[in-house]
Amino acid sequence: MIRELEIVRPDDWHLHLRDGTILKAVIPYTSETFGRAIVMPNLNPPIISVKEAIMYKERISAACPDDHSFKPLMTIYLTESTDLMDVAEGFSRNLISAVKLYPAGATTNSSHGINDFKKLYKVFEKMEEIGCPLCVHGEVVDPQVDIFDREYVFIDKVLDPIIRTFPSLKVVLEHITTQEAVDYVRISKKNIAATITTHHLVINRNFILAGGIKPHYYCLPVAKRENHRIALLNAASSGNSSFFLGTDSAPHFDTDKESACGCAGCFTAPNTIPILAQLFEQEGSLEKLEHFTSINGANFYDLPLNSERIKLIKEKDPIEFSNKVFTPEGEITVFDPGFPVSWSVKSI
Ligand code: DOR
Ligand code: ZN
Fold this sequence. Notes:
Layout: E1 4-8, E2 12-15, H1 20-31, E3 36-39, H2 50-63, E4 71-73, E5 75-77, H3 84-92, E6 98-101, H4 121-130, E7 134-136, H5 150-165, E8 171-173, H6 179-187, E9 192-196, H7 198-202, H8 205-209, H9 226-236, E10 243-245, H10 254-257, H11 272-283, H12 289-300, E11 309-314, E12 324-327, E13 330-333, E14 343-347
Parallel strand pairs: 2-3, 3-4, 5-6, 6-7, 7-8, 8-9, 9-10
Antiparallel strand pairs: 1-11, 11-14, 12-13
Helix pairs in contact: 3-4
Bound molecules: (4S)-2,6-dioxohexahydropyrimidine-4-carboxylic acid and zinc ion (ZN).
């Protein structure tokens, strides 16, 4: 049995850090383990220009502990009036690493997002030309479409036409939750990839709804049936270079989640790598963990692998993770996988 494993320091290819008090409270959990992260721009108001992304990056760097060598990779939030020259200049000067597409109203702070995808075609054309990745929240928002079908319908009705029109555009279908998304990415060309979250590898929809509503398991896209979770786990643990970790760690105050209209998001930054080690061990695929957490994403984004490494250690007993993060403005609940986790992480 493997009790120790050394891997290249992981990256998180989809992360919410927020701003102000929450940013300060949550960033050490990511920066102590991860080398880089693609930082989501869905602040309120969102980060819609390169200038705003630069200022946000400075706030992130200021909040990051001095002894952590973490590099935030910035994104901007596409609106129907995004200036394509701003994207082109920001990407060519390495000020942004990707651009994020939210369908209007799909999730937290997405009201400034896109209603008419055709309005973005000039921007997509430019991004295709310069190799700038498009990160996509892949859900339709049509109230007629059942919430459990929204990802599948998005792939069919929105994503596939975009990819056919811009066949060389680099696209990351974010936080996939369905067998259909896995299949779509698997048969696509190498410029189409997907991130998979830690929580979608652990939970199915019963976690949210069976035996009482559990708001801390509610996220978007919402977790689906067990067969979909298994499809995600198979994709993540296969080593296939088109699938990589994007935790979508999304901190919210407990008061905002435990409410009559609770917001979406699971906060997984503190225990993501131990949970993944436990899952991959159960799958008999520990040797594929590094591909998922540390290699495939960097290759997709044309970045070098992190030069540092981390060590994963299987302890004799399960680890007691703290289940709350305390901030001066409120508490944030850490994701509970519902099974014992015995792996710990050390920087080396
Ligand atoms: O669960 C989610 N939370 N999904 C998203 O797409 C956004 C995120 C957030 O920002 O809270
Ligand atoms: Zn997200």
